[in-house]
Design brief:
62 residues; alpha+beta
Length: 62
Amino acid sequence: SADEELVREFYVNLTSSELTKVSIRGIKVPISSNAIKEFFELPDFKDNEYSSLMRNIEAEKL
């Protein structure tokens, strides 16, 4: 399907975790957390339980 092709193209062009935009059908699509939040019209959570937990994890204790 067309959706599957777009998803494949997205992942093929997602060559680095440092990217802020990915080219899909010649269009640069922003992939920041804010862009995704806005696209899906998600609420803005300044500080949620998960984020607080992740900030306090010490890698050497994992």
